[in-house]
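Record type: ASSEMBLY
Status: queued
Input:
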Amino acid sequence: MRFHQYVLTRIAVTVFVMIGVVTLAFMVSHLIPVDPIRAVVGPRATAEQIEMERARWGLDKPLIVQYVIFWQQLLQGKLGRSIWSSRPVEVELAERFPATAELTLASAVFAIGLGIPLGVVAATHRNQWVDQLVRGVTIFGLSIPDFWLGLILLYIFYQQFGFGGLGRLSTGVSPPTHITGMFVLDSLATGNWTSLVDSASHLVLPAFTLSLFFLAVIARMTRSSMLEVLNKPYVAVARVKGLKERTVIYKHALRNALIPTVTTIGFSIGLILGGAIVVETVFTWPGIGYLAYQAVLKMDIPFIMGLSLLTAFIYSIANLLVDIAYGFLDPRIRY
Amino acid sequence: MSKEKEKVSRRKFIGYTAAGAVVVAGAAAGIYYATLPPTPGPSPTTTAATTAATTAAPPTTLAPRELIVGGQFMTRLLDPQKNITGHDMLPLRHIYDTLVTFKPPNYNTYLPSLAKSWEISEDARVYTFHLRTDVKFYPSGNPLTADDVLWSLDRALKGQFPGTKAYNYVKEVRKLDDYTVQIELNQSFVAFLALMAGLYDGAVMDSKAIMPHVNGAWGTPDCDWGAPWIDEHSAATGPYYLKEWNRGQSVVLERNPNYWGPKPGNEKITFKIVAESAALQMLLERGDVDVAHTGMPMDAVNEYIERPRPEIKVAEAPVFLCAVSHMNPGFKPFSDVNVRQAMRAAINYPEIREKLLRGRVLPLSSPLYKGLLGGGKTYYEYDLEKAKQLMAQSKYPNGFEVTKIIPAAADIGIYYRDLALKEAEDLAKIGIKVTIEEYDWSVMDERIIGVKYDWAEDYQSILFLDPEGILTLSGAPRHNSNVIYNKNFPWKDEEIDALCDKALAETDQAKREQLYDQVCKLIAERGVSIWYFQMEGLVPYRSTIKDYEPWSWIDFTDYSNVTKG
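Status: finished
Output:
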């Protein structure tokens, strides 16, 4: 199979995955014995008011009809209206997505940028204090809950030292001119230094909180993979040939050891999006995660469906990119 | 690996030194940044993507005298008639005016607002309001006229939104002249002023500004009532107008330059959304919010009270919220009045108040709260001997087993599980064995309204500021038309309902209070609910805030007169 055929096949599979995810989300949303209309009319609404609202939202129709209506709307590029906010779901997602994208990207930068070097250092210093330290840090990262770490960081850095804070910007600082919706990038692009410093300082704590778990996973994966590769004959050959240790590690060993790490990174992107729900709530970060938390509490079915679709899309694309990356990392892999 | 390779090379040494320098420089910068004083002024704001895309970033400015109110707000709609949550109501009550209003702690006397005066017919069926002539809407500048009142009320009557109630009572609305409105009711209803003082039925909107944005034929199910436009704009006469709504972050209000009343205390009010209670505490303690309106950790509030701090005060006021449970008479033992009375007498309320809630609640033994007409009186209390006697007189002298459903949450300051365990302990003394089952609130609501329980824990709030605003929720059967005692509920009491109906036609307040006293006595004798305590509102705020007055209807708190020093 040629490369472009492989990519097209994967894209086709992605479409089926998204159909499956949406169908599953739809079924599960309707199986849960919670009435979303109660969130709209309030807990003390009369039965008549509940029925009136249910008819208004089309929730009185048979399940299969609701499902067909959903797909009809989707094919017109619409995700329906959020029951909670009465606004189009695609508008809600588009407004909040840049904040989540910024947080997720920053977390990925932390997790990958620190996780891989830490894994390499640990592997190349096996059983030395550096290795023990890295393993200790990664166990800490794997075991501490997001919300707890977030609160601890807020207490130390924000409450004690005034660094960062809740939300995306400090008191009195205006957002940069909108380009991508990601404040750090937009501030850089427009040369708004006040906003840059402030938005970056606000981003550090939630991004680090969100990244620590994945940083630990990536570091541990890189370490174990590196240890395996470092024992391979071709690494010994490279050393015997007199190559510098740095070249042996980074050009010969790491490149081959990265394949399982890259797979992990692909999975992590989806998991980071999931983790954002907790972190965004703790830091009052106005992204999709915080909205998703509210939507699940209120059983806002149209929003949950739209979010499932978006998450499945991101997850599929991330994994497609990972598969493509295999070919670049290991020339023996061909499609 | 050889010993040789473990040695630190010169290259590595330089690398480590450089990395160390970066870390030290970073730490120094962090410490420098951290030692900068916190910046006063407005809260962080982000502009909605669609808006920001078309406008250049404004310069960084600090608004003078900006009050920042933090809380676990889940603002959903900014339409005064369509919203259903208190979180929405709080900013809206600063934007929209009503015909009449009230001032705490007196919730039984109405004060003029957009109506400078009014007359009520002797039978409490015809209400005539005389409007102020000096009121203009912001930002349109349109003068307020009777047409706006008619339009706003028509919207509430035809829309029949979840919070509106007036459609049950209004027969006809008439415009007598440009500044006089007459409302005729289909029955005597002295609580009508309470509806007009609330936003659901009473908010007055700028009809000329909103009407062009209404989609669908007026009054039909397709009509959107202009709600999407109202969500984003101000068309009102209140002391503030909606500056921006940063969804998920804040609602920002600015002073209305056209306001007809006293100049509000601050240029801006920001209602800042803080989802995490511990984070809200940090914001308050650092001075980044001025008032923690809702969602503070109870432990922290107790700490502020018990170990006072100069920079933080705690406002205390009884709130119109309480813990209550309902006994379903369809469950055989609860069909016996003696059992219901025994249950009420067996529960040790003083211990619940003092031990479980650290004395931060008020006694309550009727549906009517302290602060409302006829509220705050004692109708039953803990008396174990009496409880035992009542059980002996009942059809169940040896006791029985009952399942109590409770919410699996500890919201509005009530720890339902602790309360249920304490009750179970008390009721065991009269032979009643209680099994506790916990459910999510959504399931609880469904089971309570569907009357699918033997005994259910619940909370009681208020629909509008009048005894009837509670009795239509719980307490009196009200012809089985209310939410708890609905058409599926197997309890009727025509005597109680007749007294309530009589109280609604009684224009003499003293006589009306006597009628509610009789109602509460009968409810204590025959009723199916147990009231445990009335919540006390504890709102921490910065000492720099002046003239802060806590409201018993906490989501209706007026921050327009609060000043920030």
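Annotation: The longest strand of chain B covers residues 312-327.
Annotation: Residues 100-228 of chain B form a domain with the Dipeptide-binding Protein; domain 1 fold (CATH 3.90.76.10).
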